[in-house]
Amino acid sequence: MIQIEQLRKSFTQGSGRKKRTVQAVDGVNFTAPNGRITGLLGPNGAGKTTTLRIAAALIEPDSGTVRVDGIDVAQQPAAALARMGVLSDARGLYPRLTARENIIYYGRLHGMTAAAAAARVDVLAKTLDMAPLLERRTEGFSQGERMKTALARALIHDPPNIVLDEPTNGLDVLATRALREALRRLRDDEGKCIVFSTHIMQEVERLCDHVVVVAHGRTVAAGTVVELSAAAGQTDFEETFVKLAFGAEGAASVFGAEGAATHTTAGSAA
Ligand SMILES: Nc1ncnc2c1ncn2[C@@H]1O[C@H](COP(=O)(O)OP(=O)(O)OP(=O)(O)O)[C@@H](O)[C@H]1O
């Protein structure tokens, strides 16, 4: 289970008169239980990646907490990461290693024995339907093949929690469907807690048990697709999302989403 409470994070850019503070995350809250797929849905710049980077102990929050199975990520990052598989947008693989070698290497970094890592690769190859890829060097892999290998690598230590940042980016329809199928299997057969971020409504409608809508760095709504649509008084989920994420000015704001989704304050002159 992943619990995020009152998360805040700002970034400062430039210096002197050009100094700007971007409030990337400004009060994100949600709980992602085991055996469920939780979608973090928000427009560009809403703070999804920053939230997931904090959850994965890649950056520290200004305030707020992330707990993974009760473990505070900021206080015990290694213990939390041992219980978490993270697929970020950087899917760097070692090109000269085969898919199997790439995956096993991460298992060894997690302290697994060679035999345990090898056995786990065979299980993952079935779950992710990637057995034919295993002995190929990853150099020249397609986006879908890279994604599967990176996901297997993230899951090598059999973590109960899985965090994916925009996992379908760059995938075609078949690769996207294969990923969805794999995530459903991980939820249904292994009871994993799965959290993924996206700005694609159809992704959320097809896959998520629970949706957390993030806008302007904040959680603005949470529930099932049906609950959110009912609360917004809409039958169409795209309309629901626009209403929840952009409010009454909805459609007009969509075109200014980048600016509308963050709060910037000019810094004082040095
Ligand atoms: N390292 C950084 N330095 C400065 N600003 C940052 C940094 N990381 C993120 N931001 C800013 O914080 C805001 C939130 O960014 P974030 O990447 O978390 O949004 P997102 O919801 O993942 O967006 P997208 O869907 O476009 O990937 C954006 O305005 C972004 O420019």
From TrEMBL:
A GO MF term: ATP binding
Native species: Rubrivivax rivuli
Pfam families associated with the record: ABC_tran (PF00005)
Name under which the protein is recorded: ATP-binding cassette domain-containing protein
ABC transporter domain: residues covered: 2-241
CDD domains xref list: ABC_NatA_sodium_exporter (cd03266)
Record keyword ATP-binding present: yes
Keyword Cell wall biogenesis/degradation tagged: no
Sequence similarity: Belongs to the ABC transporter superfamily.
The entry's keywords: ATP-binding, Cell membrane, Membrane, Nodulation, Nucleotide-binding, Transport
